[in-house]
Specification:
- The chain is an alpha/beta fold.
- It has one domain (2-117): Response regulator (Rossmann fold, 3-Layer(aba) Sandwich), CATH 3.40.50.
- The chain has helices spanning 7-18, 32-42, 58-68, 85-91, 103-117; strands spanning 2-3, 28-29, 47-50, 74-78, 96-99.
- It has a five-stranded parallel sheet with strand order 2-1-3-4-5, with helices on both faces.
- The two termini are 15 Å apart.
Length: 118
């Protein structure tokens, strides 16, 4: 599942994920509230979750997702890699953190690690 409020970013990332033969069906949500509403039906193996979104931020959503599904890997994404943000994401239970500008370079390793742990 990819959660981001930018439809352009969602389309770009989903196109990249769809090209990977190891990635199955990708669902999308535009904010944390949508993700929480969809996670029961979609049963994702991984959630790529933007931090800054309207309605419910990624920081709010990660805690709620992990209360319901404590073993669900959640990777936090952000365009704003500010000091302390990585630690806050880890504190809230995120599996990994990646700056969007490095996402396509780091995502293959993240997906491999998550796949190995499933």
């Amino acid at each position: 599942m990819v959660v981001d409020d930018s439809s352009v970013f969602l389309h770009t990332l989903c196109s990249w994920l769809d090209a990977d033969p190891n990635v199955g069906h990708v669902t999308t949500a535009m904010n944390g509230l949508e993700a929480l509403a969809m996670v029961d039906d979609s049963c994702p193996d991984l959630v790529l979750l933007d931090i800054q979104m309207p309605g419910m931020s990624g920081l709010q959503a990660v805690a709620k997702l992990l209360r319901r599904y404590p073993l669900l890997p959640v990777v936090m994404m952000t365009a704003h890699d500010i000091p302390g943000l990585r630690e806050e994401c880890k504190h809230r239970g995120a599996h990994a953190f990646v700056a969007k500008r490095q996402l396509l370079q780091e995502l293959p390793d993240i997906l491999a690690k998550v796949h190995l742990s499933l």
